[in-house]
Design goal:
- With 209 residues, this protein is mainly β.
- It has 2 domains: 95 residues, 3 Solenoid (Pectate Lyase C-like); 77 residues, Pectate Lyase C-like (3 Solenoid), CATH 2.160.20.
- The radius of gyration is 21 Å and the shape is elongated.
Amino acid sequence: MVDEQAVLSLITNKIIAKTMIQPPIENKVFDKIDFTTTRIARVEYDNCIFKNCNFYSTNLSNMIFRQCSFDGCDFSLSEFKNTTLHDINFTNCKLLGVQFSECNSFLLSVSFEDCVLNMAVFYKLKLKKTSFKNCNLHESDFTETDLTSSIFDNCDLQRAIFYNTNLEKADFRTSYNYTFDPERNRIKKARFSRLGAIGLLEKYQIIIE
């Protein structure tokens, strides 16, 4: 005769085991780990440092990173669906084609220095006061992104897409190769160098000598 109470208890225990939340990994340094061959633990990471790690084409969906720094890491073609990135610093990283627009937008805060962000997508994200320093942003997509008071310091923005983008108070003074339509973007109090401002006039096909 089947002991229904025992069966129920077993099922309950299995459900609890599956739903148990693993403790976060805190204050740990990960150095030169190839996460394309070593599976990354799917837990929350707090105040961790990742140095020279390979995340190429790695699925980081639904993961949580808080106050972490990534230095010299390759995230090219990695997946960030519903990934939480809160107070994250990327330095000297490759982030080719990363769809940041798929991240969890709640509390999203990032900064980039000496990074390659070609073809990265920031569609519709709220990135107020975000810092991009010494970055390549070729063909990156900022369509409908809120970049209020953000800083582009010495960045190459060749063919980057700005459309219905909020660029109010953004600073482009030291960046170059950007072109966008002032009538299709909000640029009130945005800052540009005299030379860089030529990129705002491209649509008019005028000759400046």
